[in-house]
Amino acid sequence: MKATTARPTQWPIIAKDPASFRVPPNLGEYEEVRKSFTWDQARRELSGLPGGRGLNIAYEAVDRHAAGDRSGREALRFIRSDGGTHSLSYAQLASQTNRFAAVLRQLGVGRDERVFSLLGRSPDLYVAVLGTFKNASVFCPLFPAFGPEPVQQRLRLGAGRVLVTSRALYRKKVAPIRGSLPELRFVLLADADGHPEPDTLDLTALLAQASPDQDIAVTQPEDMALLHFTSGTTGTPKGAIHVHEAVVAHYATGRYALDLHPDDIYWCTADPGWVTGTSYGIIAPLVHGVTVVVDEEELDIDRWYRILAEQHITVWYTAPTALRMLMKAGAERAAGHDLSALRFVASVGEPLHPEAVVWGQEVLGLPIHDNWWQTETGGIMISNYPSMPIRPGSMGRALPGIDAALVARDAQGKPIIQDGEAKLVTEPDTVGELALRPGWPSMFRGYLNEDERYRRCFAGGWYLTGDLARRDGDGYFWFVGRGDDVIKSSGHLIGPFEVESCLMEHPAVAEAGVIGVPDPVAGEVVKAFVELQRGQEPSEELRLAIIGFARKRLGAAVAPRLLDFTTDLPKTRSGKILRRLLKARELGLPEGDLSTLEQAGPRP
Ligand code: AMP
Questions:
Q1: What range(s) does the AMP-dependent synthetase/ligase domain occupy (predicted)?
Q2: What is the pLDDT of residues 463-495, one digit of tens each?
Q3: pLDDT score at 568
Q4: Are strands 186-189 and 160-165 parallel, antiparallel or unpaired?
């Protein structure tokens, strides 16, 4: 069994030669920047709304560039399926987002009301996100591969007032559940083409009629801007609330962790349905006034190498699951592509194998820089910086302005609190729960309608991340594993509870337990253990029928790929399924020593 992270000594450190830097890194000497950095200073480097009237993410990302000498620069460059491109300059993006805000205002959609999207990576999605901020409304992106149930659940929990979607997605996933969503007043179809479906509106027509000069609404730093649903293990998805002030962290992390410089052509491969695709696929790069490349298609190895080469990508932010697919395809697929424009590559979302870091160096000509964060932190918290040597397998060091620590846990896995203060792990290379000192600008401000759940995330003066990690003697953090059972498959975070609940709706299923099992490409794949109703017999036909049932409801990204029938799901006395025990059995670990699971991590 291989541990999630290599120990610091196993892989040689990748040194950086300053002579090889094509541009001087924004973060020069780590310790010096850490000492001098303040969030107040970062805040002052942004514009704020004209006249000191407040702070709005869209103004910082778009309008201040549109009003200055970057107005004609490409802000967004979309790559269509045929490889053709379509761009919006900062000036055009300012007008289009003004129009979207004007549409919302005409419809009577106001401050704090929720605008959802269920849409592929098309210009309308990006215009909707930023236009929503301009109307002081709240944006909530949904991943377009979600099935009707996750869509319904999130629209309901978030009290979605507006949904921006396409005709096909509406017909398949929303029309059948529309009746159960009385708060959803307006569905705007991006591709209605003059013929909207019943009870929907034609977004293109509305935008064409709206004013491009709509004034931006005044928002304050603490006003809610984004709602990001993240999956929990023991209940319904949690809606993490983010505010306009988050843009200060997006700016600082874009500067230090992604090393954005004004002339960069930047590509983030994450879909805006996930927090990375919003914070770093839209906000951070636009705040820096760079050109953001958006691929409208899904991962395709040759296409990706072509994009890197032909679009002259300079900074690339991607994920281990994608890198693993490129690695598996073989280095020869990269041959013949001129990747010389590329100067910085970063990865997030799951542990990045040391092999992947080194593969980057060999195949892309650059090592991969891992960084760590989560939906709740709103932005990158721990990172490998361009100027800093890489220890392959490590997530890097805490961002300037971020106080990260490891909190000691008791035998039950609870944080140890003494006299109101969390007990910190001070010994190097010792496992603890990764914790952050609250107060950074992009910290989530709550879980929607779940105050108690939010409060439970903090203890002894720290925000507890739920992840286990080690820190070496030089302050590099090493991921150990998740403290709970959430499954990470191809970059998707999947709550077992959500999958189990769906399986149990199948008439033949009595009960289900769901875990993630190691997979060389996806990181983990979802595996279900199912107990059948009395009178039902296991068969291959039934197995496929149940998987098909789940796929239809949950979408292929969330439904189980593997399914075993069982007659003895392990449970606690109170009846809760012991997923960790299921996992121990699956991985052939001793059932008595479940703590080894945390050391083992999600890979073989
Ligand atoms: P999400 O909230 O969907 O962004 O998922 C956040 C979780 O993904 C974190 O709490 C970690 O468990 C995991 N994660 C993110 N980045 C990394 C990384 N660089 N290394 C290991 N795990 C990561």
A1: 65-448
A2: 999 988 899 999 999 987 667 777 878 877 677
A3: 87
A4: parallel
User: Which residues belong to CATH 3.40.50.980 in the chain?
Assistant: 89-243
The pLDDT, as a whole number, for residue 221 is 98
Q: Average the pLDDT over 42-64 and give the result.
A: 97
Residue 394, ligand 1, Cβ within 6 A: no
Amino acid at 351: P
Question: According to CATH, where is 3.30.300.30 located in the chain?
Answer: 485-597
For ligand 1, is residue 516 a contact (CB within 6 Å)?
A: no
Q: Assign 198 a pLDDT band (cuts: 50, 70, 90).
A: very high
Q: Is the CB of 351 under 6 A from ligand 1?
A: yes
Tokens 């992106």 belong to residue: 141
Share above pLDDT 70 across residues of the chain, in percent, rounded to a whole number:
93
Q: Which of the four CATH numbers 2.30.38.10, 2.60.120.650, 3.10.28.10, 2.60.40.1120 does domain 403-436+450-483 have? A: 2.30.38.10
The answer to whether the CB of 93 falls within 8 A of the CB of 127 is yes
CATH architecture of 14-45+245-402: 3-Layer(aba) Sandwich (3.40)
- Looking at the chain, the domain(s) classified CATH 3.40.50.12780 span 14-45+245-402
* Residue with CA nearest ligand 1 atom 4: 374
Check if 482 has its Cβ closer than 6 Å to any atom of ligand 1. Answer: yes
467 Cα: distance to centroid of ligand 1 (angstroms): 8
Tell me if 494 CB under 6 Å of ligand 1: no
Helices (H), 81-235: 90-107, 123-134, 148-157, 167-169, 203-209
C-beta contacts of 334-337 below 8 A and 24+ residues apart = 334/305, 334/363, 334/364, 337/305, 337/306, 337/308, 337/309
Mind listing the pLDDT tens digit for each residue in 336-364? 999 999 999 999 988 787 889 999 999 99
Q: 561 — phi, psi (to 5°)?
A: -90, -30
d(CA 479, CA 489): 17
Gap from CA of 8 to ligand 1 centroid (Å): 20
The CA 574 to ligand 1 mean position distance, Å, reads: 30
- The upper half-sphere exposure of residue 99, i.e. CA atoms within 13 Å in the direction of its Cβ, equals 19
Residue to substitute in 253, 278, 372 for testing ligand 1 pocket (most ligand atoms within 8 angstroms of CB): 372
Ligand 1 centre to CA of 373 (Å) is: 6
* Nearest residue (CA) to ligand 1, atom 7: 374
According to the CATH classification, is domain 485-597 in 3.30.300.30?
yes
CATH code linked to domain 89-243: 3.40.50.980
Instruction: Write the pLDDT tens digit of every residue in 65-89.
Output: 999 999 999 999 999 999 999 999 9
